[in-house]
Amino acid sequence: MAQSPSLETTLNNSRMDSSKLNIVESTLRNRELSIKITDKIRKLAPLAAKRAGVDIIKIMDFCGTHEWTVTHYGLRSLMPPEVELVAGPGCPVCITPAYYVDVLIKLSLEGVRVYTYGDAYRLPGSGKRGKELRSLEEARAAGGDVAVVYSFLDAIRMARKDKKPSVFFAIGFETTAPATAGPVVHGIVPDNLKILNVHRLTPPIMRYTFTTHKENPIKGVIAPGHVSTIVGAKAWEFAVKEYGIPTVVAGFEPIDVLLAILEILKQHVEGKPRLVNEYKRAVTWEGNKKAQKLINECCEVVDAAWRGIGFVPNSGLAFREKYHNIDAMHEYGIKELTPEEWKYDLPPGCRCAEVTLGIAKPTDCPLFMKVCTPGTPYGPCMVSSEGACSVWARFGGGGLAEEIAKSLGIV
Amino acid sequence: MTWYTRLWRYITLAHGAGGKETEEIVENLIVQRVPPNLWKVGEGSGLDSLDDAALIPLGDEGYVAVTVDSYTVKPIFFPGGDLGRLAASGTINDLLMVGAKPIAALDAVVVEEGFPLEDFNKIISSYIDTLKSNNVALIGGDFKTMPKGQLDGIIIASMGIGVAKKPIRDSDIKPGDKIIVSGYVGDHGAAIMAAQQGIGANTDIVSDVKPLTDLMIPLIERYADAIHGAGDPTRGGVAMLVNTWAKKTETVIVLDEESIPIRPQVREYAEMLGIDPLSLANEGMAVLAVDSDYADEVVKYMRKLGYDKASIIGQVYKPKDPRHAGRVLLKSVAGGIRILEPPSGELVPRIC
């Protein structure tokens, strides 16, 4: 795997000093505080459910990293029977259509160098396991030119040096889109490097997700913290105004998530759904305007395909006409997916789309931990470290932990 | 269809990472090929238990303990040690973990053509010095060179021989036992990863590689009956070790994250890379399963021996439902419970 020159700098720059870590550990990973909040959650839950008119309050933790926090810290085991936490569509690798992986596998074998983020390197396309090349990782093993990078800037640096015709696989939500848009707008992308723009937008998929939970509606949303640093807390106003769902923008420590749950229950008890920003240490109401401007300058919002789900209105980004020269679709004559041509793109038996939408749990999938494991991922949700299946596989999600703990009398 | 044609076509780095995939390879392609009557010698232990070292009975004299391991690490010289010290410590520790006193070692070294003699000299001196200071004889070995490009640097295979009057067998671990660690978790794994990523100088993470003779010999002499299980959490870390124990003894083991000693810089570094410190290796730390009546006393004694971070981190339970047997639970810092899976499929670079 290509070692990025800038990993060192990235890590050094992002190093927290130990005092900061201490603050995080003493306040946001604090067991005493956690027990206090959990007690309140347990007390409020029955009344909240009654007021909401349901037996169980279904709260969606939208972001893959929130699902990581919930599972890694065992937060489900702390929940009363009236509260259910379900994972949402916030894993950018999981929802990237197979079509684009297929296109890049082909290009990599035709002498075009493909730059990809590490998580997308192993993402399966539509190839059959064991029979066809199904990921960039396999393409590389078969002689394809694939390089793993930690950022778009690394790809730019490397492409400048080797001058090879190359494509950068630009996936991700609003969090990674500015990293693509910045260099494009500032004109520092070399001519030999083109971009396959598969960026997706989160508010439209949240709206879509609500509609798929008609029978047993979502009664609370833990809105994505990282995305909100860019789009601002205001992006989630529609959840409250149009759907009446209590919504809390939250950070990624266990106390953040527990506070968000408590807030959602409080709002049900009061009967007043609101949008609350719990993650004020990183998220503002308006978000990062500079980043928003960069995206808007080079991209327009389009209807876009989501893996296993299909086209969702206004949920993707595409380069504007005047940026066609850096668009890999344009340069290599790649046909864009259309709603008419889009085909269901999950491997047979894989329930990743339902898992993504929070309709099924990873453990509901018959393939989970049978033929689909972190070592041998079959579906896309097992690939990325943010995928719900991967999170459950690595940290034992699915209720067994709670069951054992109860039987032993340790919770 | 066998598991490997169904899931795997090639050997991958994951198979050698010491986690779940390594276990699968050993179990499916090695153990199952050997007839059960040849898994061990007499009343001793071997492939039947896959402990740190095998035991061959000597009648009333006790047992001979035997272990072998091949050592390869990048970089060869890392903060806190080098390949030679790693090989000697690993060999000695494997013997100590079955309750044996290490007496002799043999080594087989394979070196790539063009390898600097000075580096070889340093590594082998370090190997011999470590054996010497622990009074372990080097009684034989082998040396080979491979043409350039056919091997990356150097590999040392090291075999150890010890004697055990009363061996520690992990299969003796019982419900009620306390799980004890002798020191900080994950130091070696974090130090190697930091060195590989080229930021070793800034992280002040140092490998804990060392022989545990000064800890284990006094413990074995004093608490032979109270120590039911011992292991050094090398590849796969504490997570792998306790999972192996739970599976082998059909128990449930529950760890409390709050009581596990992890250096702040190791925790911070692991978090940055998205790796669980519990799956990072140690090369100078022991995990024990101790009779609960003696656990506090043992910890006190370990601290007196200079292992001042020795702590009880968990307990062994009898499962209430046979389906639960072999599972490890972790009570998180937030008080929630999750399953601690054995590490699997992760890109943890080669560390030993």
Seen as an oligomer or otherwise, the chain set is: heterodimer
Mean pLDDT of chain A: 92
**CATH fold assignment of the largest domain in chain B:** Phosphoribosyl-aminoimidazole Synthetase, Chain A, domain 2
Strand proportion of chain A, as a percent range, falls in: 15-25%
Distance between the termini of chain B: 33 Å
Tally the helices of chain B.
10
Q: How big is the Rg of chain B?
A: 20 Å
Structural commentary:
The complex is a heterodimer of chains A (411) and B (352). With 411 residues, chain A is of the alpha/beta class. Chain A has helices at residues 7-14, 18-28, 31-52, 64-72, 98-109, 118-121, 136-141, 152-162, 177-185, 202-212, 225-231, 237-241, 254-270, 289-298, 328-331, 352-356, 388-395, 400-408; strands spanning 57-63, 83-90, 113-117, 146-149, 166-170, 193-197, 220-223, 247-249, 275-277, 299-306, 310-319. Chain A has a domain at 98-201 and 287-331: Rossmann fold (3-Layer(aba) Sandwich), CATH 3.40.50. Chain A has 18 helices and 11 strands. In chain A, the strands form 3 sheets. In chain A, strands 2-1-7-8-9 form a 5-stranded parallel beta sheet. In chain A, helix 13 (254-270) links the parallel strand 8 and strand 9 (275-277). The termini of chain A are far apart. By secondary structure, chain B is α+β, with helices and mostly antiparallel strands. Chain B has 2 domains: 52-164, 60s Ribosomal Protein L30, Chain: A, CATH 3.30.1330; 170-339, Alpha-Beta Complex (Phosphoribosyl-aminoimidazole Synthetase, Chain A, domain 2). Chain B is built from 10 helices and 14 strands. In chain B, the strands form 3 sheets. Chain B has a 7-stranded mixed beta sheet. A 5-stranded mixed beta sheet of chain B has the order 1-2-7-5-6, with helices on one face. A two-stranded antiparallel sheet of chain B has the order 3-4. In chain B, helix 3 (83-96) packs parallel to helix 4. Chain B starts with a helix and ends in a 13-residue tail after the last strand. Mean pLDDT of chain B is 91; it is low at 347-352. Chains A and B meet through helix 1, helix 2, helix 3, helix 13 and helix 17 of A and helix 9, strand 13 and strand 14 of B.
